[in-house]
Specification:
This protein is of the alpha/beta class. It has 15 helices and 13 strands. Helix 1 crosses helix 3, helix 5 crosses helix 15 and helix 10 crosses helix 11. It is globular. It binds adenosine monophosphate (AMP).
């Protein structure tokens, strides 16, 4: 019996999934999922992990400095997994890597040459790529014999038409890699594959997916392939998010530099950590908190969030030449009936109408029977996409050996 481990490393966190492999036709089966947070020198790291049925297996804080980096974090996680599953036999590790640059459009085995190339994309995703690669290095050290595969958030969008891959800048920037990459690709891939399974006729059509979580973006798909995404060069563009600004006139950044005398690090902090819902509300990046607060500022923050989603919905529908299916996913998309209702309000002109009761109950299909556009809620699952890629790597190696 073989297993695969999925890893998703953030700047101070490491999310993990432990899967059992069946035969080649079966989906990897999630056994344990967990998260280690507050990794770093001087911090008290915290680990929480659950079985697939929701039973909490560990919820524990470590002493200060016990988990100073990703390598230490992975060692602790593996220690915990071995206690839980002494029979553990890791055949492969799958990593979420935010940036595959212009080159990588599919999961890729992590060889030294690939690692070298991925390190070159660090300036393209300075907050995410370095911790992602730290996670990979830690796993390569700990499991030198397991296959290791990178799954990129950009890969799903790599075949966008040129007009949606570029900015109107001098060409040398495009050649240097300043392109509209798009992100959340693992989530969109999961949604596209699930739609194909549950409603193949819809999968063939024009689909808009709204991934609304702490990070938020939208994607337009034709026949299951990404045609356009609201995110661009970095994960800042498009919709406002929990703490990120979303689409912004670049002149604002010049203003911050020239008039406010802000440093690049200060501007980065504003754009990535102090903007979006938290910036507008002055209260929180958490949608539940904003919905419960009901103040003028929190209402305005929600209004702006919804306004941008509606605007992108119209834009993507125009790019696709219509829309047959709208899908909500992510923490907000899956759980907030209020946001879904506001997004879909008055969209009759687009042939889109949701049923109040179905929406409140959070049913899979929330559109009315008469709505031309089908509106669905599909809980996303990025981990299984990574686990499948790890399984495929194991299969391909077995194929090679045979
Ligand atoms: P994610 O990043 O996908 O985990 O999503 C996190 C976001 O989902 C946060 O803003 C949460 O407040 C939001 N969220 C989770 N559950 C609910 C809920 N029941 N109602 C509204 N927002 C929710």
């Amino acid at each position: 019996m073989a297993h695969v481990l999925t890893l998703n490393a953030g700047s101070s966190s490491l999310k993990f999934g432990f899967f059992k492999l069946g035969d080649a036709t079966e989906d990897p089966e999630a056994r344990i999922v967990g998260l280690m947070e507050r990794i770093g020198p001087g911090e008290r790291a915290h680990i929480k992990a659950k079985r697939q049925d929701g039973h909490v297996l560990i919820d524990q804080e470590y002493g200060r400095n016990h988990v100073a980096d990703h390598s230490a974090a992975l060692s602790r996680i593996v220690e915990f997994l071995r206690e839980q599953r002494p029979e553990m036999r890791l055949a492969a590790v799958g990593h979420r890597v935010v940036h595959g640059g212009p080159d990588f459009d599919a999961p890729t085995e992590l060889t030294p040459a690939v690692m070298e190339r991925l390190a070159q994309f660090e300036p393209l995703a300075p907050l995410h790529q370095p911790p992602n690669l730290s996670g990979v290095r830690a796993a390569l050290e700990l499991f030198p014999d397991a296959g290791q595969v990178a799954c990129f958030d950009t890969a799903f969008h790599r075949h966008h038409p040129w007009v949606n891959d570029t900015f109107a800048l001098p060409r040398k920037f495009y050649d240097q890699g300043v392109r509209r990459y798009g992100f959340h690709g693992l989530s969109y891939q999961y949604i596209a594959e699930t739609l194909k399974e549950i409603a193949p006729h819809l999968h063939m059509g024009r689909t808009i997916v709204a991934h609304l979580g702490n990070g938020a973006s939208m994607c337009g798909l034709m026949g299951g392939r990404s045609v356009a995404s609201t995110m661009g060069f970095t994960a800042l563009d498009g919709l406002p998010m929990g703490t990120r600004c979303g689409q912004l006139d670049p002149g604002v950044i010049l203003y911050m530099l020239q008039n406010e005398g802000m440093s690049p690090a200060e501007i980065e902090d504003v754009l990535y950590r102090q903007s979006g819902l938290v910036g507008l509300s002055g209260l929180s990046n958490d949608m539940r908190t904003l919905e419960a607060a009901g103040t003028e500022e929190t209402r305005q923050a929600i209004d702006y969030f919804v306004f941008r989603i509606r605007r992108e919905l119209g834009g993507l529908a125009a790019v696709l030449g219509g829309v047959s299916t709208l899908i909500f996913c992510g923490g907000i998309g899956e759980n907030s009936a209020h946001i879904r209702e506001k997004v879909c309000e008055g969209m009759g002109w687009l042939g889109l109408e949701i049923d109040e009761g179905r929406n409140l109950r959070g049913e899979r299909m929330i559109s009315t029977d008469f709505s031309r556009v089908r509106v669905l809620i599909i809980p996303t699952n990025e981990e299984i996409v990574i686990a499948r890629a790890a399984r495929d790597l194991v299969e391909s190696k077995q194929g090679t050996v045979a």
